Amino acid sequence: MDLARDVVIDQPPHLKTVTGIVGRPNVIRNADFILVIGGAGGTLHEVELGLAAGMSVLPFPASGGTARTAYEVMAGRPESRAWLSEDEFLALGRCATAEEYTSVVDRLLTRSK
Predict the structure, then answer these.
(1) What is the pLDDT of residues 62-104, one digit of tens each?
(2) Dihedral sign for Cα atoms in the order 37, 103, 30, 16
(3) Domain tally for the chain?
(4) Quick one: DSSP state of residue 35?
């Protein structure tokens, strides 16, 4: 199974807020940015909702799990990262340590203010 290919990200036209199954509030509901470090099924669900809602997702692919999947999905779907330049997106993929990721994210968050 190719998770990056099989993850479905579709934004229904009526989607205005982010809620989970049976209306459960999600962790990302009021987030300005979604930082993805590692993660498994629950994290993947939050990332899918965030991407579908057009939220700003910053995965740390070197941490594995959902973060890697999110990066692969975003690499194949440029519209999901339209708020990032190509160089900024690739910089996330080059981060090998938490310190490097923190530095890139800090620059992106500072730029976005």
Answers:
(1) 999 999 999 999 999 999 999 999 999 999 999 999 999 999 9
(2) negative
(3) 1
(4) E
Range of the domain at 44: 3-111
Q: Which of 95, 55, 92 is nearest to 75 (CA)?
A: 92
Six token digits for residue 48 = 């899918």
Element (H, E) at 30: none
Model pTM?
0.77
First to last CA, the chain: 39
What does the alpha-carbon distance between residue 60 and residue 68 come to, in Å, rounded to a whole number?
7
Tokens 């809620």 -> residue: 19
Residue 41's pLDDT band (cuts 50, 70, 90): confident
